[in-house]
Design a protein that fits this description.
about 20% strand; three-stranded antiparallel sheet; 7 helices; Uracil-DNA Glycosylase, subunit E; about 170 residues; single chain; alpha/beta
Length: about 170
């Protein structure tokens, strides 16, 4: 079993660095890593989170059994970037509804460094509410709200998959 990180135990949490490169065409933004992710120092570490299976559907890649560094490399190879809208916050537990005192990440600065970016997908309602406000008015950039990949969001996988597959066209070359 994973041990809680010091930041997770204190209730004060910080996001991980962005996973992007100059060829990123699709940026996926979560809210803030949950307890399991913080404890394991990796995005979407909870085994019931649908993130990796959903992204696997988009890029036709099976992430089961793939180690974390290879997962990140597969995202980059596919033109997908990953980050969070909240840089730091107080949050007991992992639920977005418990986020207090959020300090937003500088999404505009990141987006400005990604010359091939075509779309931003927001993983869940909290991500969408913060991220869409920050990136509103960015010409030529599609802002796509998505159902949360979290196991706390009980929409069936097939329904989530239908929405997440709408991201696939943004990965096509310009």
């Amino acid at each position: 079993m994973a041990r809680a990180s010091p930041q997770a135990a204190s209730g004060s949490k910080r996001c991980f660095p962005p996973v992007v490169d100059a060829h990123t065409r699709l940026l996926l933004l979560g809210s803030l890593p949950g307890e399991r992710s913080l404890a394991e120092a990796r995005y979407y570490a909870h085994p019931r989170n649908h993130f990796w299976p959903l992204v696997g559907q988009i890029i036709e890649q099976d992430f089961v059994g793939m180690d974390y560094p290879r997962r990140l490399a597969a995202l980059i190879e596919a033109g997908i970037g990953l980050w969070d809208v909240v840089g730091s916050a107080v949050r007991p537990g992992s639920l977005d509804a418990s986020i207090r005192e959020p300090q937003a990440n500088d999404l505009v600065a990141l987006v400005d460094r990604l010359p091939q970016l075509a779309a931003v997908g927001f993983n869940g309602g909290k991500s969408a509410s913060i991220g869409r406000a920050a990136l509103a008015g960015r010409l030529g950039l599609a802002l796509v709200p998505l159902p949360s990949s979290s196991p706390a969001y009980t929409l069936p996988f097939e329904a989530k998959k239908k929405e997440w597959l709408k991201l696939k066209p943004f990965l096509a070359a310009r």
